[in-house]
Amino acid sequence: MNNADQKRYDAIIVGGGLAGLTSAVFLSQAGKKILLIEKNVEFGGLVNSFERDGFVFDAGARAILGVVLAMLKDLNLDIEVVSSKVSLGVEDKIIGIEGHNSVSEYRDLLVSLYPDSVEDIDAFIEVMVKIMKLIDIIYGIDNPLFKDIKRDKAYVMKELLPWLPKFIFAMSRIERLSKPSDEYLKQIIQDPSLIDIISQHFFKGTPTFFALSYFTLYSSYVYPKGGTGKLAEALVEKIQAFNGDILPNTVVKKIHADQQVLVDENNNEYYYEDLVWAADLKSFYNIVSLGNLAPKIRKKFETTKALMAKGRPSESVFSLYLEVDLPVSYFKESFNGHLFYTPSRKGLGNINKNELKGMLGKWGETDKKEVLSWLDRFLEYNTYEIAIPAMRDSDLAPEGKTGLIVSLLMEAELFYKVEESGWYEAFRREIENKIISVLSESLCPELKDKVEKQFSFTPLSVENRVGSTGGAIVGWSFEAPIPVIYKMQQVNKSVLTPIPNIYQVGQWAYNPAGTPTCIITGKLAADRITKENK
């Protein structure tokens, strides 16, 4: 066998995040000769864990939705998961979330903070419950994508067929709730601070049905023992067991679509029958050469490429990692291992909207003092996602100590501007220290004096590591035209590109996105390739 034959594959998958891993594992399971290429040394993308000083931290996702369990079962993956309970808190009031059972507690929490808005809160809760019931229907059965429908007649007759009419009804209702959540809430709530407390930890423009369904989704979170990265590790092992080839630490620089050849940064060529792109979509459209493809394909490709250029990435995330000389029990007394916490009932108001936009728009006229003043208020009134891996798995921190991951949404553009101005590291440190100060004054009084080490990932860190434009973690922004199919009813088509034998999967192929979308699109692309090539 010559070298060219060795580098010829039934399918090549570019991008070793959860979507790429999913496509690779199901294609290799189907007997396809596949190659999975990843630009980093490690696989997993935003579903990854790392160890430092005896602490295990999660680099991306803090937990995983239960939809993953269907895939684990289908692949016979041996991963132990535990329930990942979520808490929600504002100031000194914290509740645990147990699906529908916690709605009344949430209502009481909001009433205690906003006693003049009781009627508005009750109207909001009524809508929230309706949406949760619709989401319960949508996730009401095991995903048929991971079922052998031809053989499992009992599942088809007893579960799938009775569920389908309910699913169609739920989707029609949800379609009416696609307006941005903050805009929708203005129709039923007068107090802007209350609207902020409900919605400010979601991406700007998040659809109402997605934002207000989260009590249902929170209740289905699971956590892999050993960290979220164990899922990626298990998938890599399974791909290798199915004789799939993996190639880490390799950057793809060119795709010659007419010749069905891919070229890496070292000018190695790899030939494919089908290609699955599981990386940044803007990068894909910039490196593809169409050559002698049909005019119809070329026209559609150029039209789509123009749409991609206009698309905006969603907000990114700033994550602070803390090694703390306090036992896990200190935190466990107050909240669960996954907490959404807002230090002040005031809310962000225009701080993260008009003020930020104005500051970025006149950056050359904005001095450092003004930026830091804005930052202080931004961090004081924001909502934080706080994860404690060792509260789900006690082996993930040294005895008597705790590792905390504190995250919040931030715009990559701000970090670009600061880096251009030459004080990126000082800005990063300022954010770290302010977050510690805010949480010490509100949530954990002993925190400030017990931090042994601290470090952080900024939106630029995410962009450099994962490769997503702007460090986006769920793909496209809701505040600009989304250049991909993003409606749930059409998710099957979201994996298609203008080039018939190239597919797109993952967070950039769909919005809103997350681990379920990565898995579903990855599986859909694998199924299409397997079916079409039978």
TrEMBL record:
Which parts of the sequence belong to the Amine oxidase domain? 18-529
Question: Per its record, what are the GO molecular function terms?
Answer: oxidoreductase activity
Under the heading Pfam families, the entry gives: Amino_oxidase
Top-rank taxon, per record: Bacteria
Describe the family membership recorded for this protein in Swiss-Prot or TrEMBL: Belongs to the carotenoid/retinoid oxidoreductase family. CrtN subfamily.
Q: Could you tell me what this protein is called?
A: Phytoene dehydrogenase-related protein
Its source organism is Trichococcus flocculiformis
